[in-house]
Amino acid sequence: xxxxxxxxxxxxxxxxxxxxxxxHREVLRAIDGISFDIARGEILGLVGESGxxxxxxxxxxxxxxxxxxxxxxxxxxxxxxxxxxxxxxVRRHMQLxxxxxxxxxxxxxSVERILATPLILHQPHLGRAERRARVEEALRLxxxxxxxxxxxxxxxxxxxxxxxxxxxxxMLHPELLVxxxxxxxxxxSVQAQVVNLLxxxxxxxxxxxxxxxxDLAVVGTVSDxxxxxxxxxxxxxxxxxxxxxxxxxPYTEALLSAxxxxxxxxxxxxxxxxxxxxxPLAPPSGCVFRTRCPxxxxxxxxxxxxxxxxxxxxxxxxxxxxxxxxxxxxxNTP
Length: 334
Description:
Elements (H helix, E strand, L loop, with lengths): L5 E12 L8 E13 L4 E5 L6 H8 L7 E6 L2 E2 L5 H8 L2 E4 L13 H12 L5 H14 L16 H13 L5 E5 L7 H18 L2 E6 L2 H7 L2 E6 L2 E7 H6 L4 H9 L49 E4 L2 E3 L18
Helix pairs in contact: 3-4, 3-5, 4-5, 5-6
């Protein structure tokens, strides 16, 4: 079996909150002991509500945030505690695509300078002509004309700016892309174009992608497997086909029931969650989803469910095996 490109084990990330002079400091558990692998060439979707910890996972994986505990292995190397200099050599192989395509691009820099910056930092031996050639190559790769290199971010549409952001991430020929909600700020028609671009780049360049989103329909279109997060924990992990046709966690059932389907007249079971996402400063005891779960039982408050296999390719964190959960999407929905 091929070794995974990314291996995450029991990863935690906490933030200490409170005034610097205060004796009482609260602890926010943004990531609470998650484990997963990403195979080479795979697209793993990471989905959940805002505040579930998805973005923190991506940034911690890239060591833009330091993990509190746990381990991260990339291409067989443990990068959890690498020094800044050692991490810089690894980081050229793992890049981030940001959510907001305008805020992530410096408005005072031309596209050529934006795209050439990674080359200047990591490959300073390249001459200006060679950098320009690499910039033009990257622009063609994402479907833009080479002449775009001489323009500035404000001269492009949102979808074009996101293509520039993707081109910047590809400048160093990385193996891993962490795409942090790369289409959520775009119009629906443009979302499809960017998703198709990522799929094309995966096939052409052999990329591995962690695709972070809150829209299950988008995640289902692009991902090979899907991990569902809730309040800092992964509650379900499965192939896309299994997750959409046979959800095993009540939270996944609720997310699927909220997704739009092609036939508005088709019968469907709607699951309306009560209340709001609990605060990660004071998560519920036992199962973190129990305060909103329609199937909760007293034992849910006492046991912290571990992520366990229900089939060789399907994992869930729920103590109840007697539930028959609905897959309310119609057959034509991705």
